[in-house]
Write a structure and sequence with these properties.
CATH superfamily of chain A: Fe-S hydro-lyase, tartrate dehydratase beta-type, catalytic domain
Distance between the termini of chain B: 13 Å
Strand order of the largest sheet of chain B: 4-2-5-10
Number of helices of chain B: 8
CATH topology of chain A: fumarase
Number of helices of chain A: 5
Oligomer: heterodimer
Distance between the termini of chain A: 20 Å
Largest interface: A-B, 42 and 44 residues
Order of helices and strands of chain A: EHEHEHEHEHEE
Number of domains of chain A: 1
Largest sheet of chain B: 4 strands, mixed
Structural class of chain B: alpha/beta
Strand content of chain A: 25-35%
Shape of chain A: globular
Number of domains of chain B: 2
Strand order of the largest sheet of chain A: 2-3-4-5-7
């Protein structure tokens, strides 16, 4: 196996466009956590023209609802959740600046179209490798929606977060190469 | 008559929840190692290597294997000569879940109502199936059943004329349409016969069989092995990113059914097959 490619976050449009499905990568830097509920709140704010709790420019969002952190731990186990549940929201966020998404399972055509049009990439993390992935998360800080518990919007810092480019901005799709 | 204390059940359930969610099934680990050797694609081998490393890290750090520590599902058989002292069985199981998911820092993933969706905060109520039996034994089996794989499960009321081919096609099509979502490599539970709800319960109960043990009925052992071959020929692979390993095993349970019916249910388990058992 070849060594993983290092990806520094935040991810620019240009860098997102350079990635190709099948590349094994490691992420370094800052990304945000959100699941369905937090996505819905962001979209509701966008629709009403209100200010967002995060800047969407070049942002990478990780779809995760971690288990509770034991005393002294940064975070509990933190593997990806199924990404298709975010499909209704992602095109709007990509249009407004999002460049990276991390989750598990394939994305729908509207998400892929938005990725190709604006320049964004989808990384698959390994579902169920949650204790391993947690070791690459060095900080966890809730930014908004604390009432959602594990589903809160949080800023995390990662080092060598393991994942694979699953769908790219040129239509490359590891899920379709079967 | 054998007396079993309420608190004994609470503690046993608490410990099962914590152990089940943090310690990988050694048979699953062996099956993953074997599967890794059969994979030619880099993403597939990388994923399986990460799953093997995850099991080690979870054991070392006492963290759950997966952040989705699931609904707590129980199959309990209680002997007619067993008396529970100091409380009631279902409440003892729920109290054990409450303690285990709290003390073990496991995720609480239960909402009190399916449409109003407020988290109960302690992962109760558990899903509990109780069967009376003879003797002096209380057997408690626990599964941590995650949402991702459960969401891809399906049930069908086939016609008797659909026969064995109809059953096989339904199982394979269910896995094909699930793709990468239920976190393959999978363990596939199949229930055939009974009625609408029994076949679903059988499909879930089939997942408790130790991985790799063949069906005791040779006819169904052959069906399981053919299904496993067909499922792995789909090429879905680990996490749906392509490869030779879509499932590690197919486990089937059958039951008598109505002359007009052929119910079949497919309950999917992710690779994190978390099952525990105690005898009291």
């Amino acid at each position: 196996m070849s060594d993983p490619i290092r990806i520094d976050l935040p991810l620019t449009r240009q860098k997102a466009r350079s990635l190709r499905a099948g590349q094994v990568v490691e992420l370094f830097g800052v990304m945000y956590t959100a699941r369905d509920a937090a996505h819905k709140r962001l979209i509701d704010l966008i629709e009403t023209g209100a200010e967002l709790p995060v800047d969407l420019a070049d942002i990478t969002i990780y779809y995760v609802g971690p288990s509770p952190a034991a005393p002294g731990a940064v975070i509990g186990s933190a593997g990806p959740t199924s990404s298709y549940r975010m499909d209704p929201y992602s095109p709007t966020l990509i249009e407004r600046g999002q460049t990276g998404m991390v989750g598990k399972g394939p994305r729908g055509q509207k998400v892929v179209d938005a990725m190709c049009e604006h320049g964004a990439v989808y990384f698959a993390a390994v579902g169920g490798a949650a204790a391993l992935i947690a070791q690459s998360i060095k900080s966890y800080e809730i930014v908004a929606y604390e009432d959602l518990g594990a589903e809160a919007l949080a800023r995390i810092t990662v080092e060598a977060f393991p994942c694979i480019v699953a769908q790219d901005s040129m239509g490359g799709d590891l899920y379709k190469q079967q | 008559m054998k007396d079993i204390q309420y608190n004994t059940i609470v503690t046993a359930v608490r410990d099962m929840c914590i152990r089940g969610c943090t310690q990988a099934d050694s048979r699953v680990i062996d099956a993953l190692a074997e599967a890794r050797c059969a994979e030619n694609s880099e993403p597939a081998a990388t994923i399986i290597t990460q799953l093997e490393a995850n099991a080690k890290v979870a054991a070392q750090t006492q963290k759950p294997l997966c952040q989705d520590t699931g609904l707590a599902v129980f199959f309990i058989s209680i002997g007619s000569d067993v008396r529970i002292v100091g409380g009631e069985l279902v409440e003892a199981v729920n109290q054990g879940v409450r303690q285990g998911y709290g003390d073990g820092y496991l995720r609480k993933s239960v909402v009190a109502d399916p449409l109003r969706r407020v988290n109960t905060g302690d992962n109760t109520p558990a899903i509990i199936h109780v069967r009376p039996t003879s003797g002096q034994q209380l057997r408690i089996r626990y599964a941590a059943k995650g949402g991702g794989s459960e969401n891809m499960s399906q049930i069908a009321m086939l016609k008797p004329a659909d026969g064995i081919d109809g059953v096989k096609d339904f199982v394979v099509n269910t896995i094909a349409s699930a793709g990468g979502n239920p976190c393959p490599p999978l363990v596939v539970g199949v229930g055939v016969g009974g009625d609408f709800e029994l076949c679903a319960i059988l499909a879930k109960e089939a997942l408790f069989r130790p991985l790799g043990d063949p069906n005791e009925d040779e006819f169904y052992a052959a069906v399981e092995s053919e299904l496993l071959q067909r499922i792995n020929a789909l090429g879905i692979g680990p996490m749906g990113l392509g490869g030779a390993t879509t499932a590690l095993a197919v486990h089937l349970l059958a039951a008598p059914c109505h002359i007009a019916s052929l119910p079949v249910a497919v309950n999917i388990n992710c690779h994190s097959s978390r099952h525990e058992e105690v005898l009291l």
